[in-house]
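User: Some background: our group keeps a shared notebook of sequences we're curious about, and every so often someone picks one and asks for a predicted structure to add to the entry. Today it's my turn. The entry only has the sequence so far, pasted here. Could you supply the structure so I can complete it?
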Amino acid sequence: MIDGDWSLFVPVRLPVDWEFEGSAGIHPEIEGVTGKNVVILIKKKFSRLERFLAKILKAPGVVRRPMHHTQSMLWELMDGVRNFNEICDIMVSLYHEDISPVQDRIKSYLEIFVRLNVATVLKPREEE
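Assistant: Of course. Here's the predicted structure to add to the notebook entry:
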């Protein structure tokens, strides 16, 4: 996905529907970060025939994609302000060796989010 130094890149959530599930887990003392598990809600796009069959079979129109607690924490931290290194530092302070090697693990999570089209990674602005 991105070659080279990730340290200053800024991961950002794209505008998708999501919700919290369950009770709060471990989390940093950061405003707006709860530590709850996140569930991404992805609307299905049906063809005409699929829409007809879905109506008959009463199929849900939304796919609920629950995340692991570390992925949920990353999701909450991806606010467009924190860069990759800041997020990695917070994740290490919370999960210690459970998320080692932290940079590789966070890169993998981000690549999954980008592939699902629910997040992007922005390049830092060049200083003038």
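Suggested note for the entry: Residues 102-115 form the longest helix (14 residues). The first strand starts at residue 10 and ends at 13.
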